Structures are given as C-alpha cells and as structure tokens.
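The aim of this short unit is practical: by the end, you should be able to scan a pair of folded records and say something sensible about each. We start with the first protein, listed as its amino acid sequence and then its structure tokens.
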Amino acid sequence: MGANQQRHWLLDLINIEAKEVEGEEFPTPLIAAAYEAWHSWGSGDVLPSWNDAEMMDLPLSLIPYTVVVDVKLEPLDFVYRFWGTGMASHHDQELTGKSVADVRPIELSRVVRTSYEEVVGRAKPIVTIHRYVQDNGSLMDDYIIRLPISDNGRGVSKVMSVVDTPDKTYAYLNGIRQLFPSNN
C-alpha cells in the first residue's frame, strides 16, 4: 500500500451474522419499517412484484442506503439495478450495472453473494448484521434486510437490500476522510 493510500475501513469487517426474519424481531425500528413496506406490496403468500415495489414507502432516510439486484440465472449472478448514493459513499464504490462479484473487498463480495443466494433459495426476507472495527477499536454495525421480489409471484427475480447504519455519523466522517486523506 503506497504512502498516500489508506486501508479501506471495509477491510476490517470482523463478524457477519445472518438470520431469517422471525415475527417482530428486527434489530432497528427502521429495518422493521422497511419490512412493513415490503409486506404491504405483496398479497398473502405471493411475493411482491417489482411493479408493486414503491421505494418511497421505505423510510426516506434509508433510500440512499438501499440497493436492488436483478437475479440472473445460468449461471447464477446478481447484478445491481440500483445502488443508492449513501451506499456509494459508505462503500466507496459505485456498482449500478455491475455484478456482486465486483464488490470490494472480495471478502465482502462473498458474504453478500451468500446472502443473496439465501434469499433466492428461501424466497423470504433475511436480516444480516455486518460488524466492523472502527479506527478507535469500537464496533460499528450495519443492519441489512434483504427482501425478495418476484416477476411471477413465486420465484425471486430481484432482491432489495435496505441498510440501517445507526452510526451514520461515523460512516459519513469516514467517507470525508477518504475524500481528503491525510498525508501522514
């Protein structure tokens, strides 16, 4: 790593926990609100369709931290249809139109791909928690709900991921630090 290059904070991902949504167990009220919006788009056991998905039903503070992937079959891949501006800043990369394989660092790409595969296989929402070590040694969590969307009501054709980073101040300051790296 060169003298003017900083280690990207995403390289310090230390723990990932994924679980299927059960009842009313949501890690944050905003994640619960995202689930309720998704649930309102569907009818009964039929998955919501992309035509019924209305991102403006999500908490407005989460829309910049929302991504949507198209599920491609044979070979299985996930291509970003929408990559929110908050995600571009938070992850220091723009991925609209790119594959999940393009996510950096590669370790995060693998984790995200596995989560998408779980949503496609289960055809149910899952909540994922990504835990990072901050520069000062404290922890920062990203709470992510991955929501299946279908073109035919059964198979998953898209996955909408909504991220709540309760410590958005740190994420914002980290983004500023990357824009203006120190020379020490």
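Turning to the second protein, read its sequence before its tokens, just as you did above.
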Amino acid sequence: MGLLSGMSFRSDPPIANRLLHLKAKAAKAVPWTAQDRATVRSCLEKDDDIGVLAGCCVLVSGRTGEFPSAIEVVRRALQNKHPPPYVELSIYEALLYVEAEQLKSFVDGLLSFIGQSLSRRVINLDNTTFLLGRMARCGEARALAVLRALAQDTDTEVRESASRLLNAGIA
C-alpha cells in the first residue's frame, strides 16, 4: 500500500508516491541514486503538485546547490489556496529544513499560507506550529503573534504545542 492510499490527489499517484519515498530517504540522510536525482530533476520542471513534491524532496535533502530552483518552486506553491493535504504537509516538512535567513525572503507568503492552513485545518499542525516557532526565534513578530494566539486555541493539541514553544523561551 502506497503513502497516498486513501488520499485525494490531483496528480500522478505512482510518481507522487515515489517522490514521497525520496523525501523520506532524504530525511534519513540516505543517499540518492542517479535515477533518484533524474526523477527529481524531471519532476521539478512540472508546474503542478508533482513539481512541488520534487522541490520538497530537494529541500529536505539539502541539495539546493544541485537543484537551485527547488526553493522557488516551493515558494510559488505557497500561493496555492487549496493544495492537497499531502502537498501541504510536505511543504511544511520541507520548510523545516530551510535556513531561517532563506525563509525571510518570502515570509509574507509563508504567513499567508500558514493562515490558510490554520483556517482549513486539514493536516496535523505540529510542523506548522514548529515552523512558526523557528520564525519567532528569528525575530518575526507576526509569527510570534500567531503562536501566542494558538496558545489560546480551542484545539487542545494545537494549544499545548504552541504553549510548549512559548514556554521554551521564544517570547
């Protein structure tokens, strides 16, 4: 059974599964084969969810030098008002691997994307909350304000996650 079983998606399920597996490999620091790199390279050229997943693979792997367009692909994806849940989750997972200085270059789009995620709540928000914490630690006042609001959220899990970050000395 693939990673996308039971999920609704707008793209090619076999290649989407392949990219999600490559992202998992990258997160475990497992080297990519030449075929893996070729798959990512060809998928990055697509202007759809598959391209975004390929960009996420690159960010998680830290191979932005080899695939410099990856950060731009993911940055453009933040403008998508309703990405499929597996793409939205992959974006957050990938952004956790991006240096804070790079995030600053598209913080407005990122905060808008986060706001949409918080409104829709179709994914687990742990990575969203953690990303807000990273941004707040780097001096992004708007991220800190969102995190403080989440510490008052009606969802216990979200409230506790935000509170833990705030209590860890972000504010």
